[in-house]
């Protein structure tokens, strides 16, 4: 995402509030942590934290009063950004590009708490002659969810890396929601390719006509963060133990997914029922070694280099730790 889509009035007011944070905020007791997420299996660790009460357990181990995670689901990144800026949410899930932008705009008033999932974004096609991105003709259309999406940003990064010009494929791009894009490509319309992620990447891979052109790992390395958990600095300053416990809870949830993917898949479908997937299908996604749940971020500096070079942020952080709170800064990231 290259722009945070919030109204200028709301942005200026909310950012001013974040910039007014006191240098030292008095700790306060909370009974719940308000989190905003979107829909999809990428957010499964947070669903487990809420359902299995992992946050309360982590706080109990620290000798702190229990608090639990309360999730609010939204469609689109705008509500996540607005909630964090306005303080109506304590934490929220977003992509790395959004974090880079919002951390710069708020001068650190919003930072990353932990990575959530490292699912690759995949560029698929049904056109046999398209083997690499150099094979796209001016008539080929590449569907991404929005012109400001991580998929579109990654496509521009690929165009710069492999074609020498980040804008080379801009006129090929058409904005379509993932379900519509998949249907259009498989139906043989003008949509020749679809830049997508789980579960649509798996749905498409099940069709023998589809082959992969590239993935985000070809650009960002492996594993590269797909979505991460960001937090309002006011909340972290006032609740350092709760914030630390959130990272511990994330680790616990990710361990549970790895140890018992069938149970995790069943929980996911109970919370987000699907007509397209059963438990076995979701479990297959969770077992896929390409799909990684980890609190350690990946690809942050690659995004930062590109976004600074193309004017989407004014300056790049010196290291990935500069836009994350200290709880994971000793982890292996990039």
TrEMBL record:
- Could you tell me the keywords of this UniProt record? Signal
Q: Which SUPFAM superfamilies match?
A: Periplasmic binding protein-like II
Q: Which domain of life is it from?
A: Bacteria
Q: Does the keyword Signal apply?
A: yes
Q: Where is the signal peptide?
A: 1-27
Record protein name field = ABC transporter substrate-binding protein
According to its UniProt entry, this protein's organism is Bradyrhizobium japonicum
Q: What is the lineage of its organism?
A: Bacteria, Pseudomonadati, Pseudomonadota, Alphaproteobacteria, Hyphomicrobiales
């Amino acid at each position: 995402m290259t722009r945070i889509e919030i109204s200028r009035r709301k942005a200026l007011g909310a950012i001013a509030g974040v910039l007014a944070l006191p240098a030292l905020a008095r700790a306060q007791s909370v009974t719940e942590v308000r989190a905003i997420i979107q829909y999809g299996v990428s957010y499964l660790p947070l669903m487990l934290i809420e359902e299995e009460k992992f946050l309360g357990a982590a706080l109990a181990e620290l000798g702190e009063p229990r608090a639990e995670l309360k999730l609010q689901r939204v469609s689109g990144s705008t509500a996540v950004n607005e909630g964090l800026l306005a303080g109506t949410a304590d934490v929220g899930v977003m992509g790395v590009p959004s974090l880079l932008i919002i951390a710069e705009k708020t001068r650190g008033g919003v930072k990353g708490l932990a990575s959530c999932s490292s699912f690759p974004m995949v560029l698929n096609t049904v056109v046999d002659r398209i083997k690499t991105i150099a094979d796209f003709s001016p008539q080929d259309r590449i569907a991404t969810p929005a012109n400001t999406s991580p998929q579109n940003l990654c496509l521009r990064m690929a165009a710069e890396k492999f074609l020498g010009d980040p804008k080379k494929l801009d006129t090929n791009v058409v904005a379509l929601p993932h379900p519509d894009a998949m249907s259009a490509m498989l139906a043989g319309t003008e949509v020749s390719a679809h830049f997508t992620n789980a579960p649509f990447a798996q749905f498409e891979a099940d069709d023998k006509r589809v082959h992969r052109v590239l993935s985000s790992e070809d650009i960002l390395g492996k594993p590269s963060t797909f979505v991460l958990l960001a937090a309002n600095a006011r909340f972290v300053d006032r609740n350092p133990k709760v914030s630390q416990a959130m990272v511990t809870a994330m680790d616990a949830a990710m361990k549970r997914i790895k140890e018992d993917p069938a149970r995790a898949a069943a929980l996911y479908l109970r919370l987000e029922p699907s007509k397209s997937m059963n438990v076995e299908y979701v479990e297959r996604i969770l077992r896929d070694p390409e799909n990684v749940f980890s609190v350690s971020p990946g690809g942050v500096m690659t995004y930062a280099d590109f976004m600074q070079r193309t004017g989407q942020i004014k300056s790049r952080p010196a290291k990935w730790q500069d836009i994350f709170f200290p709880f994971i800064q000793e982890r292996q990231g990039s």
